[in-house]
Structure prediction request, 217 residues.
Amino acid sequence: MSINTSIYVRPSTSSAAYLDWLQMLTGAGLILFMWSHMILVASVNLGAGAMNTLAHFFEATYMAQVGGPLVGATMLFHFILAARKVPFRAEQQGTIWKHAKFLHHQDTWLWLVQAFTAMIILIMGSIHMWVVLTDLPITAAKSAARIQGGFWLVFYLILLPMVELHVGIGFYRIGVKWGFIKRKNRKKFHKFENILTGIFIFIGLITLIRFWFLTTA
Ligand code: HEM
Prediction:
């Protein structure tokens, strides 16, 4: 006779709903952070002085020193919450892949993109935050030097689309899951999400080009 030694306890419906709420709230917080972050970094397009002034403000008020680690912790917490549903094992991945092909529904594919980009963002986002936050103060000259070195340019060219896809799809999925995107306006919102993702990738690329050519005395 075999004894089942599994200690897996299925969460109750109410705790599963509570964890879903937390996942959504941390996700929404991170979406707002990423939109603000992209706009703040893009301030370099107005001149190195504009970016330096903003960076100085965030450091003088300790928002970078306190907010940075908080963003990191939120990212990790959001990942742990979302990991409840991510297929990590090979057989689970095989099953979800078969289901996605069988269902042939765009939202299932979007979910797969969401799970894949999450892994990359967790690793690359953590490295990026560590490098920036352990080398304060943030200045346009330091950022430009990093990007002009080449390595960080390639790094950001990978991270940028990963983040923007994840943020765009996440925004759309929150809308579908929590009901403000209804079946009849799904297509419209989907288009809106694609445009938004495109705009942020465009802003990010312009900013990287600006850093590449930036000369500071
Ligand atoms: C509070 C934490 C963060 C700070 C202080 C910060 C700061 C910066 C700075 C100063 C740059 C300019 C490039 C450089 O200096 O190397 C930058 C670029 C970038 N960051 Fe962050 N960052 C933070 C969090 C994140 C997170 C969580 C992500 C995504 C997971 C992220 C993604 C990016 C990307 C993709 C770029 C390139 C931007 C572009 O294309 O113009 N950052 N960040």
